[in-house]
Amino acid sequence: MVDELLSRAQVGTVPVLTAGSLKGLQVVLPDLREQQLMAGALSEVGLQMEIQHRILARLDAVRQGLFTQMLGDEFPGTPLSRPTGALPERRAPRTRRTNRMS
Predict the structure, then answer these.
(1) pTM of the predicted structure, to 2 decimals
(2) 11/94 Cα distance (integer angstroms)
(3) Which of 64, 74, 94, 100 stands 20 to 30 A from 58 (CA)?
(4) How far apart are CA 45 and CA 43, in angstroms?
(5) Quick one: which H or E segment has residue 28?
(6) Predicted confidence pLDDT, tens digits, the chain (102 residues)
(7) Which helix (H) or strand (E) holds 78?
(8) Residue 16, phi then psi, degrees to nearest 5
(9) Which of 8, 28, 26 is nearest to 18 (CA)?
(10) How many angstroms separate the CA atoms of 5 and 16, rounded?
């Protein structure tokens, strides 16, 4: 098959196949039942891929949510999205103690 295909290519630096050169080329196909089985299998694989893509999208959203939650929504250039209301009371900063010996 490959030899027949290459024999139809126009000779040059890069072999070129045109639609006209492919018209007489015979293509061997499996019988209809096998084609239907292959189409069904490929369809099932496509469905499983779509499910996996959705799972990955959800996991990515969870990851981003966890990351945001851990950092407290404080990203440069984004507004704070903390709940409004009373903030917890904060302690005064500790001062440095020095030992004075007189």
Answers:
(1) 0.45
(2) 85
(3) 74
(4) 5
(5) none
(6) 677 777 777 676 677 778 887 888 888 899 999 999 999 999 999 999 999 999 999 999 999 999 888 887 655 555 555 555 555 566 666 666 555 554
(7) none
(8) -125, 130
(9) 8
(10) 11
